[in-house]
Write a structure and sequence with these properties.
This protein is an alpha/beta fold and 192 residues long. It has five helices and eleven strands, in the order βαββααβαβββββββα. Helix 1 packs across helix 5. It is globular, with a radius of gyration of 15 Å. The two termini are 16 Å apart. Bound molecules: glutamine. The site of glutamine (GLN) has 11 residues, from helix 4. This is Pyridoxal 5'-phosphate synthase subunit PdxT.
């Protein structure tokens, strides 16, 4: 039985918990979900989700709780992680914003709110490397990825800008894969 941790200091938690359970099911795996609000949980997890929300708030709370160092150690151990939207911003190496203490897990520079404000949220059928048909990608005040390091693979783009990347065992998306019935991004991150 795998243990999936969903970082829940702020942001959309229940949807990720559902999506990872559905993805595990499809791949004949089973997993329990741990909601992570304090230190001490991440080290016991086999896979980790870093959800969207507000990256300034998330990064501050992670540091306050001492969860930031545990996530770094988790990544350093090569365990799989999915970081979405604000989670991607927090996982990046540079958010070009002093209020976000990035974890430097993905060698990318991000541009917060690059696709506009809440009112500019959109859904698009996105071609993603590793999926055999387009993924319904929901963008909500989403970041774009500006620069990617040499070890980063770009899996999807919108208007030529990367919106899904992979580096080692970490997958990052600008969009919210947990907000559709389609759990293939969670499958890609953890079970393939
Ligand atoms: N949906 C989201 O996670 C939005 C991210 C938010 N705009 C931020 O910069 O943190």
């Amino acid at each position: 039985m795998l243990k999936a941790g969903v970082i829940a200091v702020q942001g959309d938690v229940a949807e990720h918990a559902d999506a990872v359970r559905r993805a595990a099911d499809r791949h004949g795996e089973s997993c329990t979900v741990e909601i992570v609000r304090t230190a001490g949980v991440v080290p016991d997890c086999d896979l980790l989700l870093l959800p969207g929300g507000e990256s300034t708030t998330i990064s501050r709370l992670l540091a306050d709780e001492g969860i930031d160092e545990e996530i770094r150690a988790f990544a350093a151990a090569g365990k799989p992680m999915l970081a979405t939207c604000a989670g991607l911003i927090v996982a990046s190496s540079d958010a070009k914003d002093d209020r976000v203490a990035t974890l430097d897990l993905l060698d990318v520079t991000v541009d917060r709110n690059a696709f506009g404000r809440q009112a500019d949220s959109f859904e698009t059928a996105l071609d993603v490397t590793g999926l055999d048909s387009p993924f319904p990608a929901v963008f909500i005040r989403a970041p774009a990825i500006d620069e990617v390091g040499p070890d980063v693979e770009v899996l999807a783009t919108v208007d030529g800008r990367p919106v899904a990347v992979r580096q080692g065992a970490i997958l990052g998306t600008s969009f919210h894969p947990e907000l559709t019935d389609d759990s293939r991004i969670h499958g890609l991150a953890f079970f393939e």
